[in-house]
Structure formats: C-alpha cells, structure tokens
Design a protein that fits this description.
The chain is an alpha+beta fold. It has 3 helices and 6 strands, in the order αβαβββαββ. 14% of the residues are buried.
C-alpha cells in the first residue's frame, strides 16, 4: 500500500530539524558562556601555557583549525603535539580561582580568563 504525503507533512521534518539545530546552538552558547557574575581578567598566553605545561620541550603554540577554538596545540618541529589545558593556563597566569572562558567556539583567539 503506497501512501502519498501532502507537501505540508513532508515539510515538517525539515522544520523539526531546523528547530532542533537552533536549540542545540543555543545550548552550546549557554554552556560556553561565562557565569553572569564572572569577570574577565585577561587573555590567555597560549605560548606560555605550552612552556609551563611541557617544560624543557621547546614546543610552540599553534592553531590547527582557524575556525575551532579547541584546536590549540603545543607542537614540536619533529611533529609531536599535545593539547593545551586552558583552565590550567589561566590559573598559572592569574593565580588561584582563575578559569578559562570561551567567547566564541569558532574563534581560537577568543579564549579569556575569568574569576
């Protein structure tokens, strides 16, 4: 038995997917935003983070994807690389209680430290 769906019924999945996508984007924005009482205290020195978190290795802070804030890596000339703990970088730079805040997940340069 073949069922023919009206054009309105066929459009419903697209509307549902769009609504779901918007809800997910809003949730990501809320989850990555700083708490209302948080104060931004400064930027994150990613090179310093590489040096402090990997002492004696001579690693360079690099962005591996210009549209992904989570793509920071500490990289060696011979190819070795490791991620950066941005919360630890903030605590190292600004002292206890400092933590990482991301302003825009699509911008690697939007990391800030808050307290």
């Amino acid at each position: 038995m073949e069922t023919h769906l009206s054009s309105e019924v066929r459009k419903t999945p697209r509307a549902a997917v769009t609504a779901f996508s918007l809800a997910v984007m809003a949730a990501v924005a809320v989850l990555t935003a700083a708490p209302a009482d948080a104060a931004i205290i400064g930027g994150v020195d990613m090179q310093r983070a590489c040096t402090v978190q990997n002492p004696g290795m001579g690693l360079a802070a690099v962005v591996t994807d210009a549209h992904n804030a989570y793509s920071w890596r500490c990289r060696a000339p011979w190819g070795y690389q490791v991620g950066i703990n941005v919360n630890a970088a903030c605590a190292d730079q600004y002292g206890g209680g400092a933590y990482a805040t991301l302003l825009n997940a699509a911008d690697p340069y939007s990391w800030r430290c808050s307290r």
